[in-house]
Amino acid sequence: MGLLEGKVAVVTGASTGIGRAIMSTFCREGARVVAASRTASRLEEAAEKVRADGGTVHTVAADLSEDDEVGRVIDAAVAEFGALDVLVNNAGVGYAYRAVRPGSMLPLDESSLDDWNHVMGINLGSVVYACRRAIPIMKEQGGGSIVNVASVLGLRGHPDAHAYTTAKGAIVNLTRSLATTYARFGIRTNTICPGYIDTPMVAEYVPFLNSEEQRFVWNPMGRTGEPREIADGALYLGSSMGSYCNGAELVIDGGMIAKSG
């Protein structure tokens, strides 16, 4: 029996990186997963690999910055599998998104309001929309677990990417507020704050971060993290292993925050 045997989970941002690893890990542990992301082809390709290993995945291609689109994802969990036990809000954009929107990761005074609102809609709006729709379902069925993926950059200042860092910081405090409100209904809400993880979001920086000259400068463990290491954290918080975790920030960063103070 897996740690999520018989459970139904929604994982957003599931086509690549951390979300893809969470989808795979949850399926391996017995969950039936509704996987959501914007690009249908990439999402389905990721899901097919999980299905080939015996996992059960239903995909929903959606623009998660739009409330109605998020509604389709949450509704799919109930329609396809009859429940919603675990919600993982992982969808977001980071530094790699500059290829799509060059102004998206700039400091505040260099950002247009359009870029600011766009990043906030994806990184924070998607979390708000999903939680608003999932919580009534979880209340009615007697409980559930919400895992919000933020970032270590939501816990400290950073010289650029102010929309990104603001959104991630807001996720941390939203999680605390949800945890204090809905625990009485059996709903636990926690945050994961990853450090630099070897995903497409930061791929251009990984060789530099892991170079002999730099790797111990920024991180006591001397390396970037792997998506599976974040997925294991999501499994802990989403399953009964984390049954007394509520309102917590699980920092998985190799000691990056500890080193920087």
From TrEMBL:
Q: Which NCBIfam families match?
A: PRK07231.1
The entry sums up its family as follows: Belongs to the short-chain dehydrogenases/reductases (SDR) family.
InterPro entries to which the protein is assigned, alphabetical: NAD(P)-bd_dom_sf, Sc_DH/Rdtase_CS, SDR_fam
Task: From the Swiss-Prot or TrEMBL record, give the protein name.
Answer: SDR family oxidoreductase
- Enumerate the PROSITE patterns for this protein: ADH_SHORT
Taxonomic source organism: Blastococcus jejuensis
